[in-house]
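Good day; I would like, with your permission, to put a structural problem before you. The record follows directly beneath this note:
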Amino acid sequence: MPITAVDKDTDALTLTVTAEFPVPVRRLWDAYMDPRQLEKFWGPPSYPATFTRHDAYPGGLTTYFMTGPEGDTPGGYWEWLSVEAPSSFSVLDGFLGEDGEPNRDMPQIRMEFSFEPTETGSRMTTTSFFASAAELEQLSAMGMEEGMRQAMGQIDDVVADLQAFAAGGVTAAEPLDDTRLRVTRVIRGSVEQVWRAHEDPALVSRWMLGPDGWTMPVCETSVEPGSSYRYEWASDDGAQRFGFAGEVLEAHAPYRLVSTEQMVGAEGIPDAAQMAGVTRNEMTLTPVEDGTLLTLVIVYPDREAREMAVATGMVDGMETSYARLESAVLAA
């Protein structure tokens, strides 16, 4: 158990938890920045967490739900206040309502996480600030302290895995629920470089090509909310052509880009590939030790549409493109 001290101060209205880990500060920090890792320990073992959004930058939002043994799915959120990598970050922590939006009628607490090196690894101090003694007691009665003990007891196994989440791994995809698919890849390059590689059409047309044997005759990019974009690809033999078009919904450079997407102008493409309908694509870029963690959450109309899209080999094509981004664009 990594927790070394728990201090509940009823005068200062704080709960402080101190824990130590046998890994460098940066390794522990990255575990909190990466939703794939964070969800392996944020919820207690009986209530594992699934992170549907994780914008680890000031002004960003994180949302997650925990699945209980009876199938219940209580949700929570973080509103990010500050980020000082890799020494500290602070968030407002609260509960989601049944509609998936922050429930302002439930308690909201400020949490500050600080990280410092020790002779044997690193120390993390988590301080929760409460608005009143009643609020502190309410959340204590709900099992907050025990939940934190159980959750942090899982961190050691996560941070000990140095390979699963590092650069050099291929693009991975995993369903989050019936309609959402999360695609992740650590890309060797800065957040600013990866953002520009999605913004500049001269760069996009060099790497976003999928498997060999395709060109990109149309590349109209945009990162301005309310504007549209369009990409079209053509096979070298001229037998196939297709494209994607959509509207930019949100843009918070260089961290988050949200847009709609729909296949257009398909010629010679199997019908199954065209049945995904309109999706919502949420891309988040997060700096990690090895480069940039690119997280793309794709929201499909339904489970069938998601499975059809995955069955086309979409993820393999994305891996080819991201590998080309590293070798042909960022390494140039």
